[in-house]
Design brief:
Distance between the termini: 78 Å
Shape: globular
Strand content: under 5%
Largest sheet: none
Number of helices: 8
Order of helices and strands: HHHHHHHH
Length: 187
């Protein structure tokens, strides 16, 4: 009798104190589709810069997805960031891995980032402003994406918000679908 009581107490304690195995998140991921990059070698970024921005965009997207548990808003934001990352560097390791995991219904684990969202927003804001000063449609296009993304990542950054809103008023809404959907066209 004593052994059956101990066994029952052990199983009860195990069930109470050990967390139940979590079921994987169920979310629908529409992976970005890149047929031809919007950015050629004429873009005012070095290949190493493209690679670094892509890695940081993918890391930030996966961390924000994990924190929000793949909410619909975080999935939409991640699709924008991964679309931009794939446009900048289609074979970037972090970007390809995160995109693959999401396509399989796996929520990527949080990973250490080189930048906080606020620091990365300041970085891409500054880079966007530099790109605006260069000639070429591609530089102007990427500048707008960087500036709007900076405002979205850190809405308390008044400079980023102001510049993003002025560009929206002057040029209309930015077409994020053009980054990840080959059928979408840039306005």
């Amino acid at each position: 009798m004593m052994h059956s009581w101990q066994a029952a107490a052990f199983f009860y304690a195990t069930a109470v104190f050990l967390p139940a195995e979590e079921t994987p998140p169920s979310f629908a991921w529409d992976p970005p589709k890149i047929r031809v990059s919007l950015f050629s070698h004429e873009l005012g970024l070095l290949n190493s810069e493209r690679e670094e921005y892509a890695t940081n965009l993918a890391t930030l997207a996966s961390n924000r997805l994990a924190a929000a548990k793949a909410s619909p808003a975080s999935l939409a934001e991640a699709r924008q960031m991964l679309g931009l990352a794939l446009q900048l560097s289609p074979r970037n390791k972090k970007t390809v891995v995160v995109n693959f995991q999401l396509a399989k219904g796996i929520l990527p684990a949080s990973s250490e980032s080189s930048y906080s969202p606020q620091a990365f927003a300041r970085l891409i804001l500054a880079r966007g402003q530099l790109l605006e000063k260069q000639d070429g449609d591609e530089n102007q296009r990427l500048a707008r994406y960087f500036i709007q993304l900076a405002a979205n990542l850190d809405p308390k950054n008044e400079d980023a918000v102001y510049l993003s809103e002025v560009r929206r008023l002057d040029h209309g809404n930015l077409n994020w679908a053009a980054l990840s959907d080959p059928a979408a066209t840039e306005p």
